[in-house]
């Protein structure tokens, strides 16, 4: 899989019946539904959806829906991390 972008995770939260959302900012490249996000070298998750918050700040924030694939305890560890997006 080729790298297509980088994403800075600012916050994480869970939406009932939708799963985990990684809220943050695209640092470079383009992100599309169906891309994969790498939490570490061995762990990748498919991006199931893109969500834009109603109230926007500068820089623009984006939510990446990835389903219920990460334990709550692990969510704190990825805040303020730059994650790699692949096709």
- Described by the principal axes of the CA atoms, the overall outline is globular
Low-confidence blocks of residues: none
Q: Kindly state the number of beta strands.
A: 7
Count helical runs: 1
Rg calculated over all Cα atoms: 12 Å
Please trace the helix and strand order, writing H or E for each element: EEEEEEHE
Strand order of the largest sheet: 4-3-7-1-2-6-5
Helix content: under 10%
How would you name the CATH homologous superfamily?
A: Translation factors
Describe this structure in words.
- The chain has one domain: Translation factors (Elongation Factor Tu (Ef-tu), domain 3), CATH 2.40.30.10.
- The chain is 8% helix and 54% strand.
- The protein has 87 residues and is mainly beta.
- The chain has a 7-stranded antiparallel β-sheet.
SSE blueprint and pairings:
Blueprint: E1 3-15, E2 19-29, E3 36-40, E4 43-46, E5 49-51, E6 62-67, H1 72-78, E7 82-86
Antiparallel strand pairs: 1-2, 1-7, 2-6, 3-4, 3-7, 5-6
Which key phrases capture this entry?
globular; 87 residues; Elongation Factor Tu (Ef-tu), domain 3; seven-stranded antiparallel beta sheet
Q: In brief, what are we looking at here?
A:
The protein has 87 residues and is mainly beta. The protein has one helix spanning 72-78; strands at 3-15, 19-29, 36-40, 43-46, 49-51, 62-67, 82-86. The relative contact order is 0.36.
């Amino acid at each position: 899989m080729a790298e297509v972008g980088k994403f800075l995770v600012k916050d994480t939260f869970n939406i009932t019946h939708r799963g985990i959302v990684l809220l943050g900012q695209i640092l470079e490249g383009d992100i599309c539904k169906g891309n994969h996000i790498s939490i570490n070298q061995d762990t990748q998750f498919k991006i199931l959806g893109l969500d834009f918050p109603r109230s926007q700040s500068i820089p623009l924030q984006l939510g990446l829906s990835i389903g219920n694939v990460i334990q709550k305890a692990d969510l704190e560890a990825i805040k303020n991390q730059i994650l790699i997006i692949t096709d």
